[in-house]
Design brief:
The chain is an all-alpha fold. It has a single domain (46-329), classed as ABC transporter involved in vitamin B12 uptake, BtuC (Orthogonal Bundle), CATH 1.10.3470. It has helices at 2-16, 18-37, 39-42, 45-70, 78-96, 103-133, 139-158, 168-174, 183-200, 203-213, 215-220, 225-251, 262-272, 284-302, 312-329, 334-345; strands spanning 163-164, 177-178, 181-182, 253-254. It has a two-stranded antiparallel sheet with strand order 1-4. Strands 2-3 form a two-stranded antiparallel sheet. The longest helix has 31 residues, at 103-133.
């Protein structure tokens, strides 16, 4: 009896989270609207397959931004890390397995490219964390600066041109389908599960929330805050480099300016998902719901050809500001007070 009650607590706590409930309601409304207005797209398998391939690119970056925001920081360098590591991996793979290389060379190139990307991503993230934790530069300034730094490195390596002609083994693995499920979606699901285990099943995750809630108290409680911050940004760098590998597979090329709008989109997802920009609170479930909501909205916009893609940054920026304003206004439960007042009036 006790075990049943205990297992139901996480579910109940999720249902009490206003951000999760609000996003679930918005998602349901979007899906109904999509199904009614554009049934030929909504009920077509290609629409959902396209979504499954597209959203892991920015969703993986959002997971990294989420981790840094939980500790009261932010990572605006994720796109720079993704493109730099993708270009580095592509260059290494082409060096190991140029056009006409045999399968053995192609497999070696595949393994080497993935390993290089993850290692460089971890080092780039650790560099961000070092500057934030040790040099004490505000995270927003550090990651804006390193975004330009990493983008500049990517431009130098690639000479500003796309790098293409990757070994076919890369696409065979990274763009494969397992039981009809695209590999990018599988990678995102695995990453989300690992991040969830890290946040909710380890002492490291508990320390993240402690640090984000009160850094001074965390220091006095004996937490090694410098190491914690560096590791958090390192995880963000690994997730960003994983996103770079997915982009490399989706486009079959790497370029320094791919995914230019993904920084704004990643921040929007994290804030929309209920992560407190000041740190210390928020749920992974809210972030995943926000990813799905924005991808459905993006696919819905695609279904209306007269709506130009140039409007998307305007829409994402407007939504981000609206969410921040609503969250600030609702800090003291103003929304619930208004709903109760409306109920009493009725």
């Amino acid at each position: 009896m006790f075990s049943t009650a205990t297992s139901s607590k996480p579910r109940l706590s999720i249902l009490r989270d206003q951000h999760v409930v609000r996003l679930a309601a918005v998602l349901a409304l979007l899906l109904i609207f999509f199904a009614v207005m554009k049934p030929q797209y909504f009920f077509g398998a290609p629409t959902w397959q396209s979504m499954a391939i597209q959203f892991p690119e920015f969703a993986l970056m959002a997971l990294g931004v989420m981790l840094t925001m939980v500790i009261g920081g932010i990572d605006l360098s994720v796109v720079g890390v993704a493109n730099m590591t993708a270009i580095g991996s592509a260059s290494l793979m082409l060096a190991i397995a140029p056009e006409g290389a045999d399968a053995g060379q192609g497999n070696l190139a595949l393994a080497s490219g993935i390993a290089l990307s993850l290692v460089v991503g971890a080092l780039a993230g650790a560099f961000n964390g070092f500057l934030v934790a040790k040099v004490r530069i505000p995270a927003i300034l550090v990651t804006l600066g390193t975004f330009e730094l990493f983008t500049g490195i990517a431009i130098i390596i690639s000479a500003g041109k796309p790098i293409s002609g990757l070994p076919p083994q890369y696409a065979e693995v990274m763009a494969a389908r397992i039981a009809g499920i695209p590999m990018p979606l599988i990678i995102f699901v695995i990453a989300a599960i690992l991040v969830g285990l890290l946040m909710y099943k380890t002492a490291f995750g508990t320390k993240l929330y402690m640090l984000g809630s009160n850094e001074t108290a965390a220091k006095f409680s004996g937490l090694k805050t410098t190491s914690l911050i560096i590791r958090t940004y390192m995880f963000s760098g690994i997730l960003a480099s994983t996103a770079g590998l997915v982009m490399l597979a989706n486009y079959n090329s790497a370029k320094a300016d791919y995914g230019s709008t993904y920084t704004l989109l990643a921040v929007l997802i994290v804030v929309l998902g209920g992560i407190n920009p000041n740190g210390g609170s928020g749920r992974l479930s809210g972030v995943i719901l926000a990813v799905v909501v924005l991808q459905v909205l993006s696919s819905l916009l695609n279904a209306f050809p007269h709506i130009s893609n140039f409007y998307r940054p305007l829409i994402w920026g407007g939504v981000l500001l609206l969410v921040i304003v609503v969250n600030q206004w609702d800090k003291r439960g103003n929304l619930m007070k208004l709903l109760r007042w409306k109920g009493n009036q009725a």
